[in-house]
């Protein structure tokens, strides 16, 4: 049989593909990954399981029970639902790799991902350099590799898509030490938080990568009926309310092309 | 009313989203863009039009009748079906921009695009630099900007996704001059042709970007049941038969990460 990795797209169950729905209905068992997502899709997806349970799979579960899931797929039809496109997280690549190495068949149903959907800002998708992730700073833990990558992208005339941190099922150190299964409420980085971290790094590293006048576009809930796209300077966006998650941020190359400029004006903070 | 841009995904009608199907069924009029695609979806998509025609829209049509389509959308529900994700071609950005500027509402149904689906090669999607397009050389017309971009990506430790040229509804210069609506058969660049063009540029520019030993991954028909992924050196891939279109090519950064290496071995040309 087969291990199916099915992308669920950007938002709700209307983003599922026909092929994905078919496979879900026919599957013996369905896992839903819960560590890169906000799970707003869960209830809606239940409509298409033919009465089967939707088994929540957090990162630990997928990583630790990886071999078990693969063994199940040897004789059964196993679905793992993944938010966005299945290959945009390393954990899934690792799962697929192990399945291949054990000669278990893997099939993928691709779906929309923020990596291409970000084109809805009007910025040309081919003009993006390396995508970066901005993690929540924690006290003195302030990694800066994303700052260097934004710098390198700008030097090459490119925009940068910044994916903002998601903390789901995190434990405090105390709870972890005592092995207590108590989890902190999920946290999703806002555009505002991302900008303030960028300012902190600029203050510290002083490479003139980021300034209050840098052009940027903040987005929230892309692809949903209440998506929000606002362009402006980082200073302007730093107090813009983007509402509920998920948020992403684009740091634009300062020289926008003509079409990009016109989109930028349309989305400009009023 | 609304102008809906609906992504059709990578292959057949099973890649359509539920939301996209709903909108197609309810639409007053449906256009299907025919210039970035191979139209293999056409017959299948007809199942979901509720008896409406699927109006073929080539690039000329979308560009020249842009204002007309937008005016239609002022009072009707107009769908434009676009292969992949709607914002991956500049023509569509231009259409959306004009609609916004005329105060006509636009909604987008995103879908899978090769830009994120390329992750199925096992290369990390975040480790890709700027995407390039390789156009068919024509006599002495041998543009080389993609060669420079591959070079810049490698220098920064990044892979390069090369989208290969598609020529649909092209006219000979003679037919164009005489205004005869006679079109050449569609042409799709193969992985082999792309590689031979890369070798031509290396011979000419001698920047040591491309060599017969460069690591690369060729892909064809990604997301379909007969997709093909083959990794190897450019020399090995230069005579690999990838079958029918569409093809794409990844020029890898020579230092693959550990997981990337293991995928590379799995897809290695035997």
From TrEMBL, chains A, B:
Positions contributing to S-adenosyl-L-methionine binding: 10, 85, 113-114, 164, 247
Molecular function (Gene Ontology), one example: diphthine methyl ester synthase activity
Name of the protein: diphthine methyl ester synthase
Organism (species): Cryptosporidium meleagridis
Domain (Tetrapyrrole methylase): residue spans on this chain: 3-237
Lineage: Eukaryota, Sar, Alveolata, Apicomplexa, Conoidasida
Keywords per UniProt: Methyltransferase, S-adenosyl-L-methionine, Transferase
Keyword S-adenosyl-L-methionine among UniProt keywords: yes
SUPFAM superfamilies in the record: Tetrapyrrole methylase
